[in-house]
């Protein structure tokens, strides 16, 4: 008798045309997920005017989405491994589409934030699960590498298209249309997924860790809530201090509880690798800088410079174009020379872009403003590939996926903190949007310097030797 055909084997036998259609479906999902980070920032001035939203309300409109993504990426991947990636992917599409529809119908800031949370719950089932579907559909290593490269490049495309598409929609149809545009895309993806995507599961799914998940949510949400609400309540407010204390206790709980789990949500042994720890920190710092930049810049361009939403989106286009143009070269450089040089370029570009932004005012010539944005685009293009490479450097294959997923959590949490910090700077700036740009510029300068230092520390011989020792713990 022949052994039963595995689901992975069936996936590997589908024809090339169907594989490419599966890749297209997965790429569409990552585009809408990532685009909803950048496209919403372009709509913030219109949302503020229409819903009479406060600065903290705008912060939560962005951060409710990225915070949920950061908190639930890891369990979403393990849930799909257990119950079927196609099934969870379809559920994610339905929830994301429903959340998008409700965002567009929101009558107030509170309802908009709640709908953003629902939208993000769906998004957590799309990003990591789509990557797993691509990896199991393309079984040939060379094909898989190319497919993953195409899939990864969609993030840059989404960031490039987000401000322009968002600006055009806001000017033409109003801010609600930036959410409604997701609905037909998601509906088509649901149908195509049912018809084309093969089902797959992990040979051994990781166990659920509800206590660890609760501790992670409390820790992340507590820090973000305290930062956002500190402007209105003050840093010495009993509520702010109490929330911070709860977040710290949750963090200590993670350190005490997770090592005892056979399948921990967050395997703390990974952090014994200096390159891995540095990669998570660099991901946090890098996306903190970009999140702050993306929150403040559209409001500066529209409210201070008087540009339309579409014109503001075009002004931000260089960031996306540099990202698309330079990212492939960065990947090649990481593969041939290692991660240190791209990380140094990224840190220096962010520091220089921040220094340039610190001097931007209401009357700064627009070409000078765009030049600083080019530096931000160069930073973003140079930082992402080496961060992932550094995180998985020296790790056994069994832990590479977990290491990469944890890096994604660091990125999402960085974006969340960046928006929280930028909103606090904006709320406390006497000069309004122009003053916030200056404050965020100095923040970017500091973050760029920190990335340069971490790049040097994490890529030296001693750090790589530590990574090998950490990898041995998983043998």
Written description of the protein model:
The protein is mainly α. Helix content is 82%, strand content 0%. The chain is built from 19 helices and no strands. It has helices at residues 7-13, 16-51, 55-83, 85-105, 109-124, 127-137, 141-173, 177-180, 182-196, 210-233, 238-257, 274-304, 309-315, 317-337, 340-357, 366-392, 397-428, 433-458, 461-472. The longest helix is centred in the first third of the chain and has 36 residues, at 16-51. It is globular.
Low-confidence stretches: 1-12
The number of E-state strands comes to 0
Task: Estimate what percentage of residues fall within beta strands.
Answer: under 5%
Number of helices: 19
- What's the helix-strand series? HHHHHHHHHHHHHHHHHHH
What is the CA-CA span between the terminal residues?
35 Å
The major sheet is characterized as:
none
How much helicity do the residues have? Answer: over 70%
Average pLDDT reading: 81
Task: Compute the CA-based radius of gyration.
Answer: 22 Å
**What class, by secondary structure content?**
mainly alpha
What sort of overall outline do the alpha carbons produce when their principal axes are compared? globular
Chart the SSEs and their pairings.
Blueprint: H1 7-13, H2 16-51, H3 55-83, H4 85-105, H5 109-124, H6 127-137, H7 141-173, H8 177-180, H9 182-196, H10 210-233, H11 238-257, H12 274-304, H13 309-315, H14 317-337, H15 340-357, H16 366-392, H17 397-428, H18 433-458, H19 461-472
């Amino acid at each position: 008798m022949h052994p039963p055909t595995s689901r992975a084997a069936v996936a590997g036998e589908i024809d090339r045309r169907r594989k490419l259609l599966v890749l297209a479906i997965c790429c569409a999902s990552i585009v809408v997920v990532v685009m909803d980070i950048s496209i919403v920032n372009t709509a913030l001035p219109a949302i503020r005017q229409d819903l009479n939203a406060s600065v903290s309300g705008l912060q939560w409109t962005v951060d409710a989405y990225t915070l949920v993504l950061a908190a639930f990426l890891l369990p979403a991947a393990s849930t799909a491994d257990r119950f079927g990636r196609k099934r969870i992917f379809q559920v994610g599409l339905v929830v994301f589409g429903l959340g998008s529809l409700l965002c567009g119908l929101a009558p107030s800031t509170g309802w908009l934030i709640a709908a953003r949370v629902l939208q993000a719950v769906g998004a957590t089932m799309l990003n990591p699960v789509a990557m797993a579907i691509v990896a199991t559909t393309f079984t040939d290593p060379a094909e898989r590498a190319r497919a993953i490269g195409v899939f990864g490049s969609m993030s840059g495309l989404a960031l490039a298209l987000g401000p322009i598409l968002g600006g055009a929609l806001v000017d033409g149809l109003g801010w609600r249309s930036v959410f409604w545009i997701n609905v037909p895309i998601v509906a088509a993806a649901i149908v195509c997924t049912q018809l084309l995507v093969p089902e797959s599961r992990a040979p051994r799914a990781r166990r659920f860790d509800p206590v660890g998940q609760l501790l992670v949510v409390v820790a992340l949400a507590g820090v973000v809530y305290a930062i956002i609400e500190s402007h209105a309540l003050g840093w010495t407010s009993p509520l702010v201090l109490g929330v911070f204390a709860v977040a710290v206790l949750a963090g200590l709980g993670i350190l005490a509880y997770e090592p005892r789990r056979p399948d921990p949500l967050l395997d703390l042994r990974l952090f014994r690798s200096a390159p891995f720890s540095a990669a998570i920190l660099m991901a946090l710092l890098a996306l903190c800088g970009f999140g702050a930049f993306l929150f403040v810049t559209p409001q500066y361009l529209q409210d201070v410079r008087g540009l339309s939403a579409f014109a503001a989106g075009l002004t931000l286009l260089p960031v996306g174009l540099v990202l698309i143009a330079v990212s492939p070269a960065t990947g090649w450089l990481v593969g041939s020379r290692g991660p240190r040089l791209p990380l140094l370029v990224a840190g220096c570009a962010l520091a220089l872009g921040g220094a340039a932004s610190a001097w931007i005012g209401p009357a700064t010539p627009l070409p000078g403003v765009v030049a600083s944005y080019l530096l931000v685009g160069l930073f973003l293009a140079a930082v992402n590939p080496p961060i992932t490479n550094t995180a998985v450097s020296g790790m056994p294959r069994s832990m590479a996926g977990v290491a990469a997923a944890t890096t994604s959590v660091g990125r999402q949490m960085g974006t969340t903190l960046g928006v929280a910090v930028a909103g606090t700077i904006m709320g406390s700036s006497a000069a309004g949007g122009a003053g916030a740009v200056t404050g965020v510029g100095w923040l970017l300068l500091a973050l760029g310097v920190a990335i340069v230092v971490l790049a040097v520390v994490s890529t030296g011989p001693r750090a790589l030797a530590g990574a090998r020792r950490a990898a041995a713990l998983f043998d």
